[in-house]
Amino acid sequence: xxxxxxxxxxxxxxxxxxxxxxxxxxxxxxxxxxxxxxxxxxxxxxxxxxxxxxxxxxxxxxxxxxxxxxxxxxxxxxxxxxxxxxxxxxxxxxxxxxxxxxxxxxxxxxxxxxxxxxxxxxxxxxxxxxxxxxxxxxxxxxxxxxxxxxxxxxxxxxxxxxxxxxxxxxxxxxxxxxxxxxxxxxxxxxxxxxxxxxxxxxxxxxxxxxxxxxxxxxxxxxxxxxxxxxxxxxxxxxxxxxxxxxxxxxxxxxxxxxxxxxxxxxxxxxxxxxxxxxxxxxxxxxxxxxxxxxxxxxxxxxxxxxxxxxxxxxxxxxxxxxxxxxxxxxxxxxxxxxxxxxxxxxxxxxxxxxxxxxxxxxxxxxxxxxxxxxxxxxxxxxxxxxxxxxxxxxxxxxxxxxxxxxxxxxxxxxxxxxxxxxxxxxxxxxxxxxxxxxxxxxxxxxxxxxxxxxxxxxxxxxxxxxxxxxxxxxxxxxxxxxxxxxxxxxxxxxxxxxxxxxxxxxxxxxxxxxxxxxxxxxxxxxxxxxxxxxxxxxxxxxx
Length: 543
Fold this sequence. Notes:
Number of strands: 18
Oligomer: single chain
Shape: globular
Number of domains: 3
Largest sheet: 6 strands, parallel
CATH class of the largest domain: Alpha Beta
Distance between the termini: 72 Å
Mean pLDDT: 94
CATH architecture of the largest domain: 3-Layer(aba) Sandwich
CATH superfamily of the largest domain: Thiamin diphosphate (ThDP)-binding fold, Pyr/PP domains
């Protein structure tokens, strides 16, 4: 068969459902092979958005999302999405085209060494130089993409290799079981937990797996040990749980850190160094048990006293069997912090001033959405408000990026989430800056006939940087801009646009959007005036 046919069959063998991207002339053999495949091509308007969709597919399914581009500028547009997937531990495969490598009549036109460009951004990157190798290379790339820690992989398929005949084979998909932690280490961790006076559980990004979610819920229920999470650990255990203390949205100096400071032992499950540290270790402070797939990377603020290394879910299940609830545990201080945090986080949730406070928006969306509906965020200061104030009832129901923290990913992520979850409500929340970086994908959502709500928070500025600029004592400079008429902009793509004039008007519009099919864009003027007075708090400040 033709090598491009073999490539498509290898992808089918892996269970691929979608390919996101923009083909170029170097991909035409591959595109023709894809034409009669059961794999669905999702044509996007920018390669970066295709990469974000593929990464989000990996995040939600645990299987690599696939994206396709041509050579040169198409492939370089994948680099941000590659970093997004790699830092965020999202399995993703990029397929890029290239000029013929055996004979070329176009010199160096459009040629960039994409394989080397992708090397620091991926777990695996290779140029295919023989069609016979395609089956093995696809299988190996897939294996590495999903292996802990998951991430991005890349294969380059040159035009002449895609067109050549091959008798290459397809390889069976063979899974494997990750090793479990040593039972002696599990018992040692249990002894440390039972000997502590004020143990605390932290749930990080690496714990965001279904089996781990179930095991952690059992552990919290059985022991009654309070827990908090990082931004990318939200929803692993239902945040309505009475033992939930909050989300570490800031590195320090937040309400939650009063509780962290009281702990004498922290069981850190799924710690990932890509997230800002949720706490800093110090000599004489709380001891830390590191529960993860890999040993801790030691530095001056993180030096755990015990590593529990192996499959995280199995390790937590081992703790469920070994840890006995102790009468001398004292959680009274944590309980006080929980009351304090709840009071602060709900203080402005019903404030109906307009333009709208981000706290109010968070409260409205939480009340309107079911336990497994999905909110996707772009990157901006509102992300902190959602991380702290939006309680997640299930894993991956608030899709935020606290790894690369790139702008432009919110809308593509929402398109993907709705595509594979057609019965769930999906809302994209972006700032005006981040939205405009991939706003062209509104057309993609309309073309796919998705029922999607897009909320654009408009403050006519790069608000996160303005907040930092003000906090550092600098004058306001260089961060303000103008915006299009978002209502008309949405309508020009075939979507429906809205500009609410009050709190009540926004709620009425949101309700009607849920009831009506199609893509709906709501421009929402936002009031960030309380950022400094509430986000910039002292560690032990009391109301």
